[in-house]
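Appendix B, Record 12. Input sequence as logged:
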Amino acid sequence: KQVLMVWQWEKGLQLAHNIAYSGKVERVEWEPGSKTSLVTCGHNHIKFWKLNNNVLQGNSGVFGDESRSDQLCVSYLPDSRVVTGTASGHLYVWNEAKIVTAIKDVHPGGVLVTEVYPGGLLSGGTDGNVTLFDKQLNKVSTVS
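Logged structural output:
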């Protein structure tokens, strides 16, 4: 089992810990500007965490009808939604621990990185391409 620990590193204090997942955890991402919200993802899972009064509480993501593919990367969007890139090449957009949008077949073979920038979102995959999305997550272009 993988354990998630939150530290106040300046003082060398462990603030909280909890079991993150039984399988491999690929990424941990704090919500920008937040000291209480973070997400972990990896082998067939995503988990949304809140740190309150030194207690770390996690909620597993609900995939609904979408594939429980490995979640290889994660980024917070400016509106606090989360986007993950999957091993199956899709982007999933999450709100309240549920998939609200699935953008299919973005990178055949897997999405390795997502990066939010002021104009929208960039993704990179095993296909060697970078795909640009606008702020509404509409595909704008792909660069090889």
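The domain at 2-143 is CATH 2.130.10.10 (Methylamine Dehydrogenase; Chain H).
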